[in-house]
Structures are given as structure tokens and as C-alpha cells.
Amino acid sequence: TDSAVSIILGLSFFVAIIASMGIAIVLPWALSKLRLDPAITGGPLDTILADITSIAIYFTIANAVLAAFSS
After folding, report:
1. Short-list 19, 20, 14, CA closest to 6
2. Which residues are within 8 A (CB) of 62 and not within 5 positions of it... i.e. 6 or more apart?
3. What is the number of other CB atoms lying within 10 angstroms of the CB of residue 41?
4. pLDDT digit string (tens) for 26-43?
């Protein structure tokens, strides 16, 4: 189970960081296309969406890895 935890954490961190970078790039661009102030996403909105996405990624990967290791 120690190897499962290592896989879960390593893969979750990697995917969550990539997803957070994507959110940080896409949100200001999308708001500027909508002619809204892109600085809005530089603070709380970007952080909230990145955190929610990271938690969802962690639990999804943990569920998949633990299911694979249990059988």
C-alpha cells in the first residue's frame, strides 16, 4: 500500500499542477474575450477553481489507483 500512496500523491500533484496552470491561463484569456476585466481571475476565482479541480483530481486518481491495487 505504500507504493499505492506514492503513486497517488505523485500523479495527483503532477496532474493538479498542470490543471492549475491551464486554469490560470484560460480564465483571464476567456474573460478578455468576453470584454470583462481579466484581473478578476488573478485572485480568488482562480484559486477557488484550482483548489476544487485539485481535490477532484486527487480523489479520482486515488479511487482508480486503490481499485487497481485492491484486485
Report:
1. 14
2. 8, 12
3. 21
4. 988 988 899 988 887 677
